[in-house]
Request: fold
Amino acid sequence: MTDTPATAPFLTAWFEILDGDEPSRILDLISDDFSLSILFSTGDGNATDFAGDRAALVRYLEQREKGTRTHHLLSAATLGQDELFLGEVRREGVPEATFVAAGRVNGEGRLRRLLIGRSSEIRFT
Reply:
């Protein structure tokens, strides 16, 4: 078996924008029928689920600490219109959590579905 680099081009670009100076630009990348669920755990036994449509994504963006956390690719795959992204969240370069994201991109290159799970209790590195 040949070792080929793992890719998820849409989600890779998504997280680069999210980590940049204008994270709200990701709103331009979603479809009209977009829906998401971001289950966000900080390891204290509590989790927050940002679920819904565009409005839920806006709420998620509003509560984020802009510029403090960055997303780093560990592995990825693309299967047809679906992308899978395993990553690590770092705060000022220090690993803080692991996350997995699954996204479905439509024929126009816009994100239709997004599911993200994040936990500070497990590492893949």
